[in-house]
Design a protein that fits this description.
2 domains, single chain, alpha+beta, paralog of FGE (formylglycine-generating enzyme), 359 residues, 3-stranded antiparallel beta sheet
Length: 359
Amino acid sequence: MDITYDVEDPDSSVLWVTVAVSDTGGATATVLATSFTGDVGPNVSPGKGKRIVWDAGKDWPGEFSANMRFRVTAEDTSPAPGGMVLIPAGSFRMGDVIGDGYSDERPLHTVTVSAFYMDKYEVTRSLWNEVYAWAITHGYSFDNWGSGKAADHPVQEISWYDAVKWCNARSEKEGRLPAYYTSAAQTTVYRTGQVNVQNGWVKWDRGYRLPTEAQWEYAARGGVEGKRFPWGDTISQSQANYYSKSSYSYDISPTRGYHPAYATGGEPYTSPVDSVAANGYGLYDMAGNVWEWCWDWHGGYGSAAISDPRGPASGSVRVFRGGGWLGNARRCRVSDRYYFRPDYWYNSIGFRSVLPPGQ
């Protein structure tokens, strides 16, 4: 399928071009399409007669519709904020694509995600301390001061409440409008206490935030479709810092137990945040090292295709993702979901943040 377009942008010499595919005349854009070549992706220059080729036979075999529409979007590819990478818009199958996960990873469903920036590393003890020191002199208070084995290791012992307040502090420290507020009026910035911020209390287009579950899983997959892990279907300790055991056939690590390179000096057995290779989007430790808090209340999935989901409107436990240094291979799968009360903290739980484009 050939797609041609013209694009002009006086403010940027290069653009990030994405394509959304609809089989409903444009009413929805949930066809799972990733096999594009040509003038698509990052570093596309403006001009006339741009061309994209979609391999429909690969992405949509045996399907047909008389109502196909394509939405081509071009965004400025200004440099990502320091320490972050741009995650392109796209669609993916969210959940247990292999069929060996837990029941709350089903049903499998198609999710479309808008572009966003994401921290390439889990928030380090160094970055946490920098923002924390500013925050406590600017009206913020936290339940825990946070811990970390070294400056370049992930911060841990962080509750969901503290992660959210820290994101607001990071925004304000950098002169950005914060994302989280204490009511639907969105007038009082969330800086203190334990507030169960609701979906309608968030400025979704402003400031640092925790990733939604959908954003986290989409980013963790790194553009790789239908695999257990960000790189494929098996895992070893050369790829992630986790607790290896022989219980899972896909855990092929030649070393077992805690990671031998990092199980020293007492718990936690975290590792420096750049110790293993990044995934396809340039993100590190999307499996292992520490669990990462997400925005969402934990709840069941629906089967319908959906765009930019933000999870249930209410709940009792919040989700964290990614496994950790004491998690096993099954917990390191990209579709795995774990959860606890938002006031919970432990030495294997940290986080990373996201930022809307144009910030």
